[in-house]
């Protein structure tokens, strides 16, 4: 199973909104509403922020939101703040008790 | 609050077996799904497999022949063994627990990670 496809980088100015895409196939993103998103700061473990496409982990600011259309899931960060600068990874259930991740997107706050 | 902590050698020789242990505090290991996830330097994470209810396991198909995950309930620990390692297995290895009611598909709790290098 191939990794999910994410753009390597994204950027935005403080206060702006940015959307990160995650493209899969009919066997993973397109087949299940089990897409999650993780935020990772340098040298730290990934942190769950969104799961089941749209559900925000308790304690995660409502500036973070998730959606899905067809084979592509998206993470939107609204009202960008400096602390949002990090790597973001999507993850999807891929059937047969298998889970796959994306290659990651580095978000830069300009 | 659940806390996880990985331990094990930071250097393994090619063709040998990588062994790591995860110590869990703040939660019972006999419930929930406990996974190992690795992340090669500069790359995205890769799920290796999970164990739940202490005896049921499921592994990434691409690594299935080399991975074994087991539990020691008396110590509230679970372990990873990866056989016949090569340089491609060099990565930060994380132990994780699933988020509530997600049946192992969502990784809600993570250890701090441990870097394992494969080199002679």
pLDDT < 50 stretches of chain A: none
> Biggest β-sheet of chain A: count, sense, barrel?
7 strands, mixed
Element order of chain B: H for helix, E for strand:
EEEEEEEEEEE
Radius of gyration of chain B: 13 Å
Strand content of chain A: over 45%
The percentage helix of chain B is under 10%
Low-confidence stretches of chain B: none
**What is the number of helices of chain A?**
0
As an assembly, this protein is heterodimer
Shape of chain A: globular
Biggest beta sheet attributes of chain B: 7 strands, mixed
Architecture blueprint of SSEs:
The complex is a heterodimer of chains A (110) and B (120).
Chain A: E1 9-12, E2 18-23, E3 35-40, E4 47-51, E5 55-56, E6 64-69, E7 72-77, E8 86-93, E9 99-101, E10 105-109
Parallel strand pairs in A: 1-10
Antiparallel strand pairs in A: 2-7, 3-4, 3-8, 4-5, 6-7, 8-9, 8-10
Chain B: E1 3-7, E2 11-12, E3 18-25, E4 33-39, E5 46-52, E6 56-59, E7 67-72, E8 77-82, E9 91-98, E10 107-110, E11 114-118
Parallel strand pairs in B: 2-11
Antiparallel strand pairs in B: 1-3, 3-8, 4-5, 4-9, 5-6, 7-8, 9-10, 9-11
